[in-house]
Amino acid sequence: MTLKYVIESNTKTNKSFIHNRPVRQMRVSQFKMNMQKSIRRLRKSKKLTQRQLGNILGVDQATISNFESGKTIMTLDLAYELILVFGCDFYIECDLSGIMSLPKAS
After folding, report:
1. What domains can you pick out in the chain, each with its CATH number?
2. Where residue 4 falls among pLDDT bands split at 50, 70, 90?
């Protein structure tokens, strides 16, 4: 598969995201907000304090508080750890299915 074909293919199937930065930025903002709310809801549903979740992830309580309030953006490493800690619940809570249904880059 040539690079030209990949670019043309992606452009046709994902045109609204490739050429529309405001749409992408809006989706990213929605995703971050959803993750923040999800962390708090899942933590509470598992009866964990911020300190306890912080200990599990190897960060302090203030870091968890900052993630939940949106003051700090978590690293990909910590986001993946949350997926490992909360499993399927995190996947569903954050509605990662919307990301998975986007066209794949070939």
Report:
1. 23-99 (1.10.260.40)
2. very low
